[in-house]
Amino acid sequence: xxxxxxxxxxxxxxxxxxxxxxxxxxxxxxxxxxxxxxxxxxxxxxxxxxxxxxxxxxxxxxxxxxxxxxxxxxxxxxxxxxxxxxxxxxxxxxxxxxxxxxxxxxxxxxxxxxxxxxxxxxxxxxxxxxxxxxxxxxxxxxxxxxxxxxxxxxxxxxxxxxxxxxxxxxxxxxxxxxxxxxxxxxxxxxxxxxxxxxxxxxxxxxxxxxxxxxxxxxxxxxxxxxxxxxxxxxxxxxxxxxxxxxxxxxxxxxxxxxxxxxxxxxxxxxxxxxxxxxxxxxxxxxxxxxxxxxxxxxxxxxxxxxxxxxxxxxxxxxxxxxxxxxxxxxxxxxxxxxxxxxxxxxxxxxxxxxxxxxxxxxxxxxxxxxxxxxxxxxxxxxxxxxxxxxxxxxxxxxxxxxxxxxxxxxxxxxxxxxxxxxxxxxxxxxxxxxxxxxxxxxxxxxxxxxxxxxxxxxxxxxxxxxxxxxxxxxxxxxxxxxxxxxxxxxxxxxxxxxxxxxxxxxxxxxxxxxxxxxxxxxxxxxxxxxxxxxxxxxxxxxxxxxxxxxxxxxxxxxxxxxxxxxxxxxxxxxxxxxxxxxxxxxxxxxxxxxxxxxxxxxxxxxxxxxxxxxxxxxxxxxxxxxxxxxxxxxxxxxxxxxxxxxxxxxxxxxxxxxxxxxxxxxxxxxxxxxxxxxxxxxxxxxxxxxxxxxxxxx
Length: 698
Prior knowledge:
There is one protein chain. The protein is α/β, with parallel strands linked by helices. 64% of the residues lie in helices and 8% in strands. Strands 3, 4, 5, 6, 7 and 8 form a six-stranded mixed β-sheet that branches. It has a two-stranded antiparallel ribbon with strand order 1-2. The protein has a two-stranded antiparallel ribbon with strand order 9-10. The protein is globular, with a radius of gyration of 32 Å.
């Protein structure tokens, strides 16, 4: 049979119509089954089985349509039907109508699924990622939260002193293993002086008891009032007023801690009793400086504007240890502040900064070599400073014995495991830290970050929603939430709406989220908004959301100029950015992320060979095997460097390698690849477009 005759016969026998009807009908069945079956608890294999059976049934259906024909007398073999008995044309018209009906149903279902069911599924997925805090849980009878004390002193500058007194009582109680004590970061949100619903606070923090109090400092006298309350019943269990000389304030703190432990019938070991009775310092002025610095460190999250707070805290702590060279706790905090600048922000990853951290740690070690806090401080130094993960974990295990209620141990363990590539185990430790510090928005943000590293954006957004329930006015977190939605879905609208709301609050409201605004404006190709975002940034980086890859304000100006085809401005801006970045690299020559950024700038300036060499050296300095987080970033941003250097083959190869890295990057997300101008050199290449399409949300 000739091929033309064969297709004519296929049409005459309605085989092609049957194929169309079968395929459209099968698609509709699969879609409806995939939606309905989970609602009735159907096993996961059942929808897949339906797809397989429908695929297998296609060939028999086509053979059946070829062999048999519908006649007024029923189904007959095609060869047995006389021409005058054939009603094939009428059957074909009926099948056409059936195809139209099924197509209408399919299109209707598609629209219903896209605009009604899909948003509901997405919302359910996000909601399911949030721990259900409303579930009734057994609250430990020996759990307690020490709420901020009220400053009754006439001098309002004594507020930091009051915070310090409350924090020392909390710290003393936290040393008792028989108690569950909520960390200061969570309780500091319940400001003193405002009406408090203690039952609600107890439920939010998951504790049975709360401590309230006040401090009044006058000349050389101090009055401290403390009371223990059952948060479940509002019953006052214990209260005491202490009128003493100011020099006795630390003795008062330890007396309060021991009295509360006695009321809760908590077992107190000799070592715990000794630790509680040890005063932090004998110099009240040094204690004031320390309290101010600690408050700054507690609120310095991973925002673009936190560095001035870190540097101010270092100044205050330097003054504190200068006044009292035996101030052990101040040295521990000082070491942490230096390490944070060196290893977390990466803005001062210099030998000099690391040496300052080591000097503070050595001072603390000389004062109390066997203290749990010393082991914690050493663990922080080994992690942030030396990336000695095994050594840091060993120190944390020692510290855990005497610091049972310190969330920092679990948080740091989570960070270490995350950098080793043990993401799930790291998440478990971060969740344990949140149990002890349930309203610590920094740890909740880190949990969100862990999910984002895994590319699990629904769970990232859910964790940020939980954070926003605690700090609803935090502009950076609100913007981050919708930035991650954009990375996930490739949709800038929610982010732009959030930015508009923040901007409406006043010119200063957007500062902490100005880099995200700039990112959004570039993604939307809105140069006017991008210019406004650059102005709002001031001297802050234009991209700070993927530490330690920090792109300067000057780099942002060059990027915007190149997007708008203003090549003269672009070269000037990139040139200035390079001079600034070169100084950073000279100060920290062995730091891969800084060299990675320099390579990206050189690529923008057309220095291809130099840029590629710098990118490769950056990867060698910061391999994934050494540091999963930073190593992944250097590897991934090298794809952008190669693209800007004009080496498409290398860029595409590096992009695929970066997508396989153990830690997902926002810049390699579907939304960024689809929209951001950093990827413009690859746009239009079929291989690049195929990669982008493959990342689209299913």
